Amino acid sequence: MLHTECIGWGGNMLELHVFGPAFGQPDPSPFCMKGIILMEMSGLPYRRVRGNLQKAPKGKLPVLRDGDKTIPDTTFIRMYLERNYGVDFDKGLSAEQRGTAWAVEKMLEDQVYWLVVQERWTNPANFDRGPRRFFDAVPAPLRPLVIAMIKRRISRNLHGHGIGRHSDAERLELGRRALGALAGILGGKPYLTGPDPSGADATVGAFMIAGLCDVFDSPIRSALQEHANLVAYAGRMRSRYFKEEAA
């Protein structure tokens, strides 16, 4: 359930625009879940509202609104909170820890994310289980045309990124390598950089929760489940930051 109360901070209202719960997840987008975790970590009062992609400045969610300011993209949302509200998501971390955390975030966002997109949007059975529902509000006569247009756009994006040029086996190999690296870095720690969550955990937690979604036929999920520490970590993050959804 999305927050509906209007909560202000410093004279402005902070609003995080997201998709809302779907597929048994707090949000179908790992980036929206990342945004939610960042807001929860910040301790700032805010509310979650359903976003509108057509009104989003970069055509994607989440978007943070602070009074008359609009901040798209979770990385820039984080930077905005750090600069304007004095939030230190990496308090106490060494330069080495901060560097490792940033590298892990980019590995997940710039590679693993596209592996998940490939699985959900280009596999016909997975598309029918999930993304097809995004088009339910489109008038029935137009729906097939809109779906075809969006799927072509996503296929072009996947090809342009490079992930779409690989075979299924090659993509799985990349996913296994990334998840193995993450499992090695996490080790036996409760969170990525130690006993307490840091900024990178917003990304890692969101992606591990998304990766374990059981709605889809997912070799990436199977690869993730091979690492007990990642599965336990995902459960820990979900319980900590999505209390309502986990209840």
TrEMBL record:
Residues 19-89 form the GST N-terminal domain. PROSITE patterns: GST_NTER. Pfam families: GST_C_6, GST_N_4. One of its GO terms (molecular function) is transferase activity. Keywords: Transferase. InterPro entries: FAX/IsoI-like, Glutathione-S-Trfase_C_sf, Glutathione_S-Trfase, Glutathione_S-Trfase_N, Metaxin_GST, Mito_Protein_Transport_Metaxin, Thioredoxin-like_fold, Thioredoxin-like_sf. It comes from the Bacteria. This is Glutathione S-transferase. It comes from Bosea lupini. The lineage of its organism: Bacteria, Pseudomonadati, Pseudomonadota, Alphaproteobacteria, Hyphomicrobiales.
